Amino acid sequence: MVKLCLGVTILAITSLLLGAAVSVALNSMQLGEAASKGRVSNDCVPLSASGNNVYVAWVSNKTGNWEVMFRVSDDNGKTFSDKINLSNTPGSNSLDPHIAAYGDNVYVSWHDNKTGNWDTYVRTSKDRGQTFGDTIAIKGTGDMPQTSKLGVPPGLDPVEDSPLEATHVAAFGKNVYVASWDKKTGNWEVFVARSTDNGDSFGDALNLSNSSNTRSDDAHIFALNDNVYTTWWETSKNGTSVPVFRASNDNGATFGPVLKLPANGTIGKE
C-alpha cells in the first residue's frame, strides 16, 4: 500500500487568514546554496510564513556532515538573507527539519544523533528569524537506544523495521507543538511535546499512538486557536496501513480518542 502525506491544507489556509503561519514542504528551491555532496532520501525544503516574512530550511553536507540550514525573507520572498547553520553539530548529522511561525516567532525542529541516539531538537527565534535561542532536546517515548535511521526494504517486517523518520512543528499563540515518532519503547510510536511559553521550554512527550501491536509513523500536526490536530499511519503485522486522526481541544493538555479514517466508511474509534 502506498502511503500518502496526511496534511491539513484546508486548516492551513484558514490559519493564514487568521494571521498564523502556513508550513509547506517543497521538493526543491534555489536559495543560493551550492550543491551538497548528495541528498538524503526523504529530504525536502520546508517553509513557513507570517506577515511579510518567509522562512525556509534544508539540509546540507558541505561541511562533511549533515546540517540544518536556514534563511529568511522579509519582503514576501523577493530576497533572502544569508544562510544560517541552525544545527551546527560537527561530528554528527542533523536531518528532517520542519518550520512553524506565529507572529514574530519562528520554530525549527529536526533530528540529530550527536548523543549516539537519534533525538528530536528544536530552536526558537523571537525576532523573525534574525537570531535563535539555544537548542532544546525533546525527550521521546521511552529510554531504549535508537542509533540508526533505516528505510523499510522489501521483505522486512513492516512493524519491527524502521520507517523513515521526520519531525513536525506547529504553533498558535504562546503554544508550540513538536511531533515525531521513535522506537524507544521497543515499538514505533508517535509522540507530541508541548511548550506553553513560546518555545522557551517543553514538557514531557505524550505517546499519542500507544499502539504496541502496530507501527505508528509519518505524523503531521496542526494548531488553530485552542485546538491541536494530528494525523499518522498505523501499520499492522500483515502490512496493512490505516490513516488515523486525533485531536486536542485544550491546547494539547489532553487528546481525544484515535479515529480511523477509512475511505468512504464510518469513522471508528480505537
Can you put this structure into words, describing what you see?
The chain has 270 residues and is mainly beta. It has one domain: Neuraminidase (6 Propeller), CATH 2.120.10.10. It contains 1 helix and 18 strands. The strands form 4 sheets. A 5-stranded antiparallel sheet has the order 1-2-3-4-5. Strands 14-15-16-17-18 form a 5-stranded antiparallel sheet, with helices on one face. The chain is globular and about 50 Å long. The two termini are 21 Å apart.
Main sheet characteristics: 5 strands, antiparallel
Can you count the beta strands? 18
How many domains, as an integer? 1
Strand content: 35-45%
Shape: globular
CATH structural fold name: Neuraminidase
Give the helix proportion (percent range). Answer: under 10%
pLDDT averaged over residues: 82
Helix/strand class: mainly beta
The rounded Rg comes to: 18 Å
State the end-to-end distance.
21 Å
Major sheet: order of its strands? 1-2-3-4-5
CATH class category label: Mainly Beta
CATH architecture: 6 Propeller
Question: Which blocks of ≥5 consecutive residues have pLDDT under 50?
Answer: 8-35, 150-163
Number of DSSP helical runs: 1
Summarize the helices and strands and which ones pair or pack.
Layout: H1 9-17, E1 22-26, E2 45-50, E3 53-60, E4 67-73, E5 84-85, E6 94-102, E7 105-112, E8 119-125, E9 136-138, E10 168-172, E11 175-182, E12 189-195, E13 206-207, E14 215-224, E15 227-235, E16 241-248, E17 259-260, E18 268-269
Antiparallel strand pairs: 1-2, 2-3, 3-4, 4-5, 6-7, 7-8, 8-9, 10-11, 11-12, 12-13, 14-15, 15-16, 16-17, 17-18
